[in-house]
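Action item from last meeting closed. Structure (182 res):
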């Protein structure tokens, strides 16, 4: 992928700075967040909790979140990663052991971030408080993807845009389908 020089330089500086972040709290929290978000486990657990404890509103929010997450996964991992090949940040930039556990796929975009943002944004119209609770781990997932050396900040930003677009599509799909009916 050909990245404009100015963006590439900012990406490189911010990646190195975030990877070198030595906060003891971050070193404990971020790997746990990544493990929970792996294979979208965190969002499935949130959906189950919402559906079980939130009544009709919780089931509606959970369904929207899961559907948006699925759309975001298809768009980010099934389409964008196949179209854009970008190497992961160099391992020598990452001064900790998390770098050994990186995927081999394209760095662009962050599928973890796309799923997190899609789930959270799709939940928001039905249950704003649940979305606010989901926003915290969503931000942590995005930060962890850069901190671990799995992605550049622009990969995470692209994932967030894809996630937001997936949530918007899921929100508008019923109205679009009604309009298209003969």
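Sequence:
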């Amino acid at each position: 992928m050909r990245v404009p020089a100015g963006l590439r330089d900012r990406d490189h500086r911010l990646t190195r700075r975030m990877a070198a972040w030595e906060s003891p709290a971050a070193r404990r929290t971020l790997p746990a967040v990544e493990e929970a978000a792996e294979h979208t486990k965190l969002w499935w657990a949130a959906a189950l909790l919402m559906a079980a404890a939130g009544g009709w509103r919780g089931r509606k929010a959970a369904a929207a979140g899961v559907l948006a997450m699925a759309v975001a996964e298809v768009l980010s991992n099934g389409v964008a990663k196949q179209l854009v090949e970008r190497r992961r940040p160099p391992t020598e930039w990452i001064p900790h052991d998390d770098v050994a556990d990186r995927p081999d796929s394209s760095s662009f975009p962050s599928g973890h971030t796309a799923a997190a943002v899609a789930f959270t944004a799709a939940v928001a119209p039905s249950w704003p408080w649940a979305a606010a609770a989901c926003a915290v781990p969503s931000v942590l997932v995005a930060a962890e993807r850069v901190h671990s050396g799995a992605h550049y900040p622009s990969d995470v930003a692209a994932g967030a845009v894809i996630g937001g677009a997936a949530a918007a599509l899921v929100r508008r799909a019923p109205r679009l389908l009604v309009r298209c009916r003969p």
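Note appended to the action item: The longest helix spans residues 55-83.
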